[in-house]
C-alpha cells in the first residue's frame, strides 16, 4: 500500500498567523482579565481578526478598549464602532478629555494629546483590573519597539524597564506578575508593515478609508502633510492645499501626517511600501521626532 505524507509547510504569513494565534490563546489561558487595545487602526484590526480566528466558534473572550484622545479622525471612530458591533465585542472607551476634566493630566497649548494617553490608559487598567493588555505594536515600527518582548512586564506604576525584560526562548512566554502589575502583549511583534498589508489583502479585511488615497485639505508642517482638523486648524501663514493623500498610520490628528499617494487598493499600498525607505512612524508621526529617545521615554511612562 502506498503511503502519503501530509505537507505541513506554512507560508510566511501562515507562520506569523499561527504564532499570533498561539500567543492569544496563551494569554486567554494564563491571565484572569485580558483586554485588547483597539483604535480602529490597521494593526489593531488585524489583531482583532486573529483573536476571532483563535477562539472561533466561541466568541472573543475579552473586551476591547480604545484610549480616545478626542482628536481622532471621524472616519476612524465610525469604523471603530461599526467593527466592534460586527464582532460582537464589548467596547470600552477611556477618554483623555475625562482625564483632563478631572485634573489627572494637564493639556498644554499646542502640545498635543498623544503623550497624555499614558495616564488615561493606566487609570483604565487599574479601574477594570486588567492584568494583560494586548496591543498591535510591531518591532519594525521604531527602535524602542524593537526592545520589547512578546510579553512585556509593567510594574505597579505601569512603567516599562527594558533591563527587566524576560527571555522568551523557544516561544516560552512568562506572564508571571505580582498584584498591581500587568503585562503588555504584542502578538504582531515579528510582523512588518508589509506583512500586515499582505494579510489584509489576502483575507480581504476592511480597514478605515484613510489608509487609501483620497482628497484632503492639508498644510505643510515640519516637512509633513498635516490634515486641517479641529485639533490642528490652519493658522496665519499656513498655505492650505487640497492634495491626494493617504495615511500609513492613523492616530491623533494633531501629530499624524499623511503622505502623497495614489494607492487606492491594498495591492497598490503593498507596492508602495515595497519601494519606501522610511518606516511608517518615521514618515508620519511628529511625536516621534521630539528626540532620539522620544518613544522610549513615553514607554517608560506607561505608553503603549
Short description:
The chain is 32% helix and 15% strand. The chain has 304 residues and is of the alpha/beta class. Helix 1 packs across helix 2 (42-55).
How would you sum up this structure, described in words?
The chain has 304 residues and is an alpha/beta fold. The protein has 2 domains: 13-194 and 294-300, Rossmann fold (3-Layer(aba) Sandwich), CATH 3.40.50.620; 207-289, no CATH class. The protein has helices at 12-30, 42-55, 74-87, 96-101, 117-128, 193-203, 266-275, 280-284, 294-300; strands spanning 34-37, 64-68, 91-95, 132-134, 151-154, 182-185, 214-221, 224-227, 241-246, 257-260. The strands form 2 sheets. It has a 6-stranded mixed β-sheet, sandwiched between helices. A hairpin with a 2-residue loop joins strand 7 (214-221) and strand 8. It is globular, with a radius of gyration of 20 Å. The termini are far apart.
Largest sheet: 6 strands, mixed
| Total domains | 2
CATH architecture of the largest domain: 3-Layer(aba) Sandwich
Cα end-to-end separation: 57 Å
The number of distinct helices, counting runs of at least 4 residues, comes to 9
Structural class: alpha/beta
Strand order of the largest sheet: 3-2-1-4-6-5
The CATH class of the largest domain is Alpha Beta
What is the CATH topology descriptor of the largest domain?
A: Rossmann fold
Shape descriptor? globular
Question: Strand fraction band?
Answer: 15-25%
Helicity, in percent?
A: 25-40%
What is the strand and helix layout of this fold?
Layout: H1 12-30, E1 34-37, H2 42-55, E2 64-68, H3 74-87, E3 91-95, H4 96-101, H5 117-128, E4 132-134, E5 151-154, E6 182-185, H6 193-203, E7 214-221, E8 224-227, E9 241-246, E10 257-260, H7 266-275, H8 280-284, H9 294-300
Parallel strand pairs: 1-2, 1-4, 2-3, 4-6
Antiparallel strand pairs: 5-6, 7-8, 7-9, 8-10, 9-10
Helix pairs in contact: 1-2, 6-7
Amino acid at each position: 500500500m502506498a503511503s502519503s505524507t501530509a505537507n505541513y509547510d506554512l507560508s510566511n504569513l501562515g507562520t506569523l498567523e499561527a504564532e499570533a494565534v498561539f500567543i492569544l490563546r496563551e494569554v486567554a489561558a494564563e491571565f484572569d482579565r485580558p483586554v485588547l487595545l483597539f483604535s480602529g487602526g490597521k494593526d489593531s484590526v488585524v489583531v482583532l481578526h486573529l483573536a476571532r480566528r483563535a477562539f472561533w466558534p466561541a466568541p472573543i473572550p475579552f473586551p476591547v478598549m480604545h484610549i480616545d484622545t478626542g482628536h481622532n479622525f471621524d472616519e476612524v471612530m465610525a469604523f471603530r464602532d461599526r467593527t466592534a458591533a460586527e464582532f460582537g465585542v464589548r467596547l470600552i472607551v477611556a477618554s483623555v478629555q475625562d482625564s483632563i476634566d478631572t485634573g489627572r493630566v494637564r493639556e498644554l497649548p499646542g502640545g498635543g494629546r498623544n503623550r497624555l494617553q499614558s495616564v488615561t490608559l493606566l487609570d483604565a487598567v487599574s479601574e477594570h483590573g486588567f492584568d494583560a493588555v494586548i496591543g498591535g505594536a510591531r518591532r519594525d515600527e521604531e527602535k524602542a519597539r524593537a526592545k520589547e518582548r512578546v510579553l512585556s512586564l509593567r510594574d505597579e506604576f505601569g512603567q516599562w524597564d527594558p533591563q527587566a525584560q524576560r527571555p522568551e526562548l523557544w516561544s516560552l512566554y512568562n506572564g508571571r506578575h505580582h498584584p498591581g502589575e500587568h503585562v503588555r502583549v504584542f502578538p504582531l511583534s515579528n510582523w512588518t508593515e508589509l506583512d500586515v498589508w499582505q494579510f489584509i489583502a489576502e483575507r480581504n479585511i476592511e480597514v478605515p478609508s484613510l489608509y487609501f488615497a483620497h482628497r484632503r485639505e492639508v498644510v505643510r508642517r515640519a516637512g509633513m502633510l498635516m490634515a486641517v482638523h479641529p485639533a490642528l486648524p490652519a493658522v496665519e501663514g499656513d498655505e492650505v492645499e487640497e492634495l491626494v493623500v493617504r495615511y500609513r498610520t492613523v492616530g491623533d490628528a494633531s501629530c499624524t501626517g499623511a503622505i502623497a499617494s495614489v494607492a487606492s487598493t491594498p495591492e497598490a499600498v503593498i507596492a508602495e511600501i515595497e519601494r519606501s525607505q522610511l518606516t511608517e512612524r518615521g514618515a508620519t508621526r511628529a511625536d516621534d521626532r521630539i528626540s532620539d529617545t522620544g518613544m522610549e521615554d513615553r514607554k517608560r511612562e506607561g505608553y503603549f
